[in-house]
Amino acid sequence: MVDNLNAWLDSALQTLLFIAGAPLLAGWIKRLKCHLQNRAAPSLFQPYRDLVKLFAKDVVLAEHASWLFRAAPYIVFGAMVLSAAVVPLVAVPLPASAIADVIVLAGFFALARFFQALAGMDIGTAFGGMGASREMTVASLAEPAMLMAVFTLTMTASTTNLSIAIRHILAAGLVLRPSFLFALLSLAMVTVAETGHIPVDNPATHLELTMLHEAMVLEYSARHLALMEWASMIKLMIYAVLISNIFLPWGIASRFTVAAITVGTLAVTAKLALLSVLLALWETVLAKMRLFRVPQFLGFAFLLALLGVLTHVILETAV
Amino acid sequence: MMPLDLVLWLPLAGVLLLALVPDHRIAGRINVAVAAATFAASVWLAWNVLRTGPEMSPGKLFYIDAFNVYLVALTAFVGMTTAVFSRPYMEHEVGRGRVGRQRMRLYHAMYQGFLFAMLLALTTNNMGVLWVAMEAATLTTVLLVSLYRTPESVEAAWKYFILCGVGIAQALFGTVLLYFAAERRLGAEHGDTLLWSVLHNHAAQLDPAVLAIAFVFLLVGYGTKVGLVPLHNWLPDAHSEGPTPMSAVLSGLLLNVALYALVRVKMLVDGSLHTQLAGHLMMGFGLVSFLVAGLFLHRQHDIKRMFSYSSIEHMGLMTFAFGIGGALATFAALLHMTVHSLTKSAIFVTVGHAAQIAGTQQIEHIRGLILTQPPVGWGLLAGTLAIAGFPPFGVFMSEFLVLNATMKSWPWLTVPLLLGLVIAFAGLLRHLQPMVYGIPPAGQVRVRANMLPVAVHLALVLWLGLSIPLFLSGWFEQATRLISGGLSL
Amino acid sequence: MHLSALNLYGQGILVSAALVLFTSFVMLAQTRIQPLIYAFAWQGALLSVTTALVALVSGHSHLYISALLTFGLKALLIPWMLYRMARRLHIQREVETVSHPSLIMLAGAVLVVFCYYVALPVAQLSTLVTRNTIAVSMATVLLGMLLMITRRAAVAQVIGFMSIENGLFFAAVASTYGMPMIVELGVAFDVLVAAVLFGIFFFQIRASIDSLDIDRLNRLSEKAE
Amino acid sequence: MMLAYAAVVAALLSGAVAMAADRFPPALRIGSFSLLGVSGAAALGAGILALLSDSRSRAQLPFGLPWLSWHLRLDPLSGLFMAMVGISVIAVSLYGPGYVREFERGVHTPHHAPSDGAPQPAVHHSLAALGLFTGLFVAGMLAVLLADDAFVFMIAWEIMSVSSYLLVVYQHHNSTSRQAAFIYLLLAHAGALVILLAFGVLAGSAGSFTFAAMRTAHLSPVWASVAFALALIGFGMKAGIVPLHVWLPEAHPAAPSHISALMSGVMIKVAIYGLIRFVFDLLGTPQWSWGLATLTIGTATALLAVLYAVQQNDFKRLLAYSSVENVGIIFMGLGLGMIFIATGHPTIGAVALLAALYHCLNHSVFKTLLFLGAGAVLYRTHERDLDRLGGLIRRMPHTALFMLIGCLAISGLPPLNGFVSEWLTLQAALQVSVLSSGVLRSIIPVAAALLALTTAIVTATFVKAYGVAFLGQARTRHVAHAREVSIGMRAAMALLALLCVALGVVPTLVIRLINPVTRNLLHLGPAGATVRGWLWLTPVSPHVASYSAPLVVAAMASTLLLAYVLLHLRRRATRRSQPWDCGFGGLNARMQYTSTAFSQPLRRVFAPVWRTEEQVSLPAGSADQASGMRHQLHITDWSWPALYQPVGHLVLVAARRVGRIQTGSIRVYLAYSFFTLLLLLWLIT
Fold it and tell me: Looking at the whole model, is its pTM more than 0.95?
C-alpha cells in the first residue's frame, strides 16, 4: 500500500517535472537553432520569461468571441497535462499510465486539437479557418501514423500500457527489431509535423499563408496565449520523450531509489538533449515544403508505421 | 339446393330486368340490389357447404366443393362491391357524355350477364357447360369493352373478341378430346362422361396420350383467358379501354375463373398422367408471364393498362404456384387468388376515380392525388403497396408462401422470382409515386368518389394478411387436399 | 383397318371429311370475299352431311338434330348474314392481296401432316370408323387459324374463326359421335351470338377507322415510341 | 414482456390518436407524442429488465398462418436494442411537439422550388399521416426486435420500411425527397426479399420458420455461407454498407428531422440487430471467412463514408454519411468478433462483439442528438446548407452546447462515449497475435490503421461542421436572427447529451449491463472487462490494457480547476476589441472560411475517391477579381454511375426489347398463340 502510494506520488512529481521541463526543452532547441544559424541566441530560459510575461498581461478578446474561445486554452492545456501524466519520463512503473493507455493518449491529443481548431474558427477570421482546416488535414494523417507507430511497440509488448510496455522492452535487453526502425522513423516524422516544425510548419513565422499552428492562436492574448504555447511545448516534449524512452529506454529508473531516479533523470535529459540537436540540425538543413506536399510526407510516415506493424506481425511473431 | 338456384337465377333475372329498365340511375340501384342479393345467396350456399361438405345438384349438372364455393362467394362479393362503385362512376361518365342512356342499359344488363356466366362457370360440373360459360363471359363483356366507341376501345374489343374466341375454341377442342378419352374408357352413357366429378373419379383410367394433347389445347385455350404470356395480348387493351368497373371485374374475376378452369383440368390430367407434365408447363408459362409482365410495367403511360399488366404478373405467379403443386404452393395460390382479386379490384376502383379527377388515364397528367383528394390518393398508395406484396397485407403472406414452396422444391427458381418481384415493384412505384405525391397541376378537380368498396376490400386483405380466419383456412385446406391429390399441410 | 373394310357409309364419311379439309384449303386460297363466304357455306353443308352419315352409321338419333342445327346455322344462317353484311359494306367484290399464297398452301399441307402425326396416338385408341378424322378436324382448326393469321380483311378473319368452329364440331362428331345435347346447344347458341356480335363489330370498326382492314387496328401496342 | 407489449401497443395508439390531428392539431402534439413517450419508456424499461434479469420470455399470438402463429421472444440481445429504441423514442417524443409546429403552419420552402416550377402556396401536409406513420414506424421497429419467427420478423421489418418510406416522402412537395424516397423504398424492398431468401435457406433445412427450429438446424458449410452472404447483403442494405448505402444519405436527410434521428439513430441499429441475430444466434458458430468479409466491408464502408461525409455541405447529409461510417465501425467490430470466435478465441471475440454492441448504443445516442440538433437549426433558420449558417453559438447557446457534446462524442474523443467503443474495437484488433493464420494477422492491423485514419477524419469532419455552423459569424440574415428553440426540444437534446457523457464516464457499468448479451450469444462473458471494479475498464486483462474514464475526468477537472484558479487569483479586466486578424481590418462574414474551403485540402489529398466537378470561373471585365470570381463544386458518389445506373439501364433496355413483342397487330398475336400451340403439341409427342 505504502509503495503504491509512493508510486502515485512519484507519478505526480514526474508529471510536474514534465510540465516544468517542457519550456526548457523548447528554449534549448531554439538556442541550438540560433547557434546553428549563427544568430545571437536568447537565453535558455527565455520561454519561461515569455510565459510569465503573458500570464501577467490583461486579456484582450475579440468582440464576438464565444465562451468556447475562452474555455479552449484550459481544455487544451489540461489535455496536454494529462497526456504528460501517462508518459513515463524518468521511471517505470508509472501507475498513472494505467489510467490511460497509448490509445487514450492519442485521444487526448485529438481532444486538444479539436478545441484548438474550434477556437481558431470561433472569431471567424480567414486565418483561423485556414489554420484549423490545415491543422485538421495534417492531423488526420499524422494521428493514425502515430498510433500505428506506437502499436508496433504495444504489439511487441502485447500491452497498450506504456509503462508496462517500456518495462517489457527494458527487460528484453538489446534486441534489434526491424519493425522498430520503421516505427522510429515514422514517429520522428509525425513529431515534426505534429509539433509544427520544418518542413511542415515553421514555428518562427507569422507569414500568413504558410502558418498552420500559429494561425489558430492568432487571436489569443495573455494567459490564454500562454496556456496554448505551453501546451504546445508540452506536446513537443511528450513526443520527444516517447521517442527516447520507447526506442532507447536504457537508464530509465525501474525502482524508486534515489539513485535510480537520478540516473533516470540524467539519462532522459541526455537523450532529450541529443534528440533536440538532431531536430535543430534537421530544421536548419531543410526548408519548409509546400502545404500540398505535406500529405505525401505524412502519407509516407503512415506507410512506414504500417510497415512497422506488418514487419512485426510477419517477421517477429512466432507462428 | 335452394341457395345454388338463387345464386344462378338472380343474376339471370337481373339481365332481363335491367335490359328493360330505361333510366340508368334506377338501373344502377337495381344492379347493386341484385348483386347484393346474389352475394347473400352465395354466402348462404357457402355456409351450407361449409356445414355439410360438397353438394351435387340433382341433375349432377352442378357440383359445389370447397374449391369453387369460396370462389363463388368471392365472385359474388367483388361483383357486389364493384356494382356499388359503378353506380356513381357511371353516372359521372354519363354526365361527361361519354356514354348514352341506351348503352347504359346494355351496360347494366351485360354486367349481370357477366356475373351469371362467371357463377355458372364456377358452379357447373360439366366441362362442356364450363366451356360454354367461359365463352359466354367473353360474349357478354366484349360489347362493354367497346362501350365508349372510341377507335381504341373498338380495336381493343375486336382483339379481345378474336383472341379470346380463338383461344376458347382451342379449349373446346381440348374438351372434345377429354370427352373422347372418357368415352373410350367409361362407355358411352351419354351426358355423364363429361361431368367433372365422373372424370375426376376415373381419371386414373383415362388415356395419357389423349389427355396430354387435350391438356395442351385446354392450356392454350383457358390460358389465353388467364392472360399467360404470349397469349396475353388482349388483356391490357381490354382492361385499359373498357369502363373501369369492367376492368375491375375482368381483373378480379374473369382471370380467376379462367385459372379455376385450368386447375380443374390440371387435376384431371395429373390423375391420368403420372408425369409432372401439366405442372411443368404451367410453371413455365407462369414464370414467363410473371417476368415479362414485370418488365412491361416499366413502359406504361396509361394507368389502367399498367395495372392490367400487374394482373398478368400476378396471374403468372398463381399459375406458377399451381404448377409447382404440393400442399404449400397450392394453399399459397388459393390465398393469392383471393387477395389478388380483392386488391386488384380495389385498385381499379381507385384508379377509376383518379382518372376522373385528372380527366385522363395518362399517367403523366395524374399528379399529387393526396393533395387533391386525399382518400383517393391514399387508397391508390395503399392498394399498390398491398399488391406489391408489402405486409401486413395478405398478398405478402401468399407471396411468402409461394417463395418458400419454391425454395423447398426448386431452390434456384427463387432467384428469377425475386428479380421479377423487384423489377415489377420498381415499375409500379416509379409510376405510382409521382401520381400520388407532389404538387397537383392546375385543373385537377375533386370528384364524387365512393371509397367504401376500396376500404372494405383493403380491410379484408389486411385481415387476411394478419390472420386467416379459421373457416377460410378450412376451405383452403380442403381445396388444397382436393387439388394436390390428398396432400395436406 | 383398310378402307375397303368399311361399308359405304363409312367410306362416305371419309370422303366428306376429305372434302371438308379441301374446303378449308379453298378458303385459304380464296382472296375474294364473296367466294370465301360460299366456300364457308359449303364447308358447313359438308359438315352437316357428315354428321347425318355418322348418325346413320352409329344410330345416335340426337346426331340428326345436330346435323340439322349445323345445316341451318353454318350452311345457311351465318353465311347469309355474312353475305348481307358484305353487300351492305360493299366489300363483297373486294380482293385482298395475300403475300406468298403458294407458301401458305405449302404451310397448310405441312400442317395436315403435323396434325396426322400428333393425332396418331389418339387415332390408334379409337375403334370408330371415323378415327382418322380426328387428324382432319385438328387440321381444319389449325387451317382456320392460319387463315385468320394470313388475312387482313375482318370478314375473312370471321370466316376463319367460324371454320375453326366447324373443325371443332367436326371433331366432336367424328371422334365421339357428338357431345352431350346440352353442350351442343350451348355451343350452337354461342356461335350464333358470336356471329351477331361480329356483325355489330363490322359496323363499329367501319365507323371508327372507316375500313375493315384490321391491320389498321394497331393503335394499342407496346412498341417503343 | 408485458412492458414490451405495452411499448408496441402505445406506439400503435399514438399513431391512431394522430389520425385526428388534421382536424385538431393538438392531438398530434399532445396526445400522440405523449403516447410515443410512454412507448419509449416502456421499451426502455422492458429492455433494461431483460438485460438485468438475463431472462428469455417467449409468447405466441394467435395471428398469422393457421399452422404458424406469431412467435415472440424477449432476450437480452433484443432487450439491448429495445433499450436503444426506447431512449431515442423518448427523446423524439420530447422533441416532436415543438418541431411539428412547423408543419402545422404549413411549409413554405424558400430554397426548394417545386419540380414543375408552378407557383407554390404553403403546402399543408397531413399531420395525421405524420403521426400515424411515426407510430407505425416505432411499432414496427419494436416488433422486429420481438420477433421469434421469420414470418413475424418479415412483417415487422416491412412495416418498418414502408412507414419510414412514407415519412421520408412526407415533405413530398420537393422533388428531391420524392427521388430519395423512391430509391429508398426500392432498395429496402429488394433488401427485404434478400433477407426473406436468407431465412428461406435456413428454414429449408430447419423445416420450420420459428427461430427456435433454425437454431437447431444444421446446414452444410456451403449453404451456411450462402445464407450468411444473403443476410449480409439484405441487412447491410438497410444498415447502409458501401456500396449498398446510396439510398441512406438521400433518404435520411429528406425526412423530418426527428424522423431522420430515428432512422439514423435507431433503424439502422435494427438492421444490425438483424445481422447479429442471424449470424451469431441462428447460424451458430461463424466461419472465419465471414468475419474477414465483414471486416473488409466494414473498413471500406467506414473510410469511404467518412471521406464522403467530410465533403458534404448539407448538415443532414453530412450526418447521414457519418451514420454510414459508424455502421462501418460496427461491422468491423462484428467482423473481428466472428474471426476470433471462429478461430477459437471466444473471450477476445466477446470483446469485439461487445465493442460493436457498445458502439451501436453510443451511435444511437449521439446520432439522435446530432440530428435533433440539426433539426433545431433547420427549424429556426430553414437552412441545411452549412455555408449559409454560422455564429449560432451566440444565438442558440444551449443547442450549441449540446451539439458540441455530440460532436465530441461522435469524434471519439475521451472521455465521451464514442471513444470507449472505438477503444474497445482497437483493443480487440490488437490481439491479432493470438491468431495463427498469417492472412488475418496481416490484414487486421491494416484494418486497425484504417480505423485510426477514419476516426481522425471524423474529427476533421465535425470540427468543420461545428465550426462553420456554430462558430464565426452568421452568413445569412435568417441565421443572424435565429432564436433558441423551445424548452421541450432543448430537453430532448439535453437528455441525450447527458447520456453521451454518462456512457462515456462509467463504461464499466454499461458493460456489466451488456454482458448478458454476449454471454448468451457465446455462452460466456468477457472475463476481465470489469474485474478491477467499476473504476477500471480492462477488456482483456488488467495487464494488457486498462482505461479509467472516471479518473481521467477527475484528473481533467482538477487540472482545469487548478489552472483556472491559479490564473484568476488576481482579478484582471478582460478587454473586448476588434479582432487582430494580422492587422487586416474590416472583418466581415464573407471573409470566413466556408465549409467547402475547409475540406479543400482533404479533397486534394484523397482526390480519386470522389467524382468532383470543380470549376472556377472568372467573368470577363469584372472590376475586382475577388468579387467576380465564382466557384462551383459538385461532389458525387462513385457508386451511382458504377453500380446503379447500369442496372437501371439494363432493366429499361430489357423492357424495351420485350415491348417489341406486342406489336399491336392482331394477326401477329394470333400467330403467337398458333405457334405456341404447335410448339406444345410438338413438345408432348
Answer: no
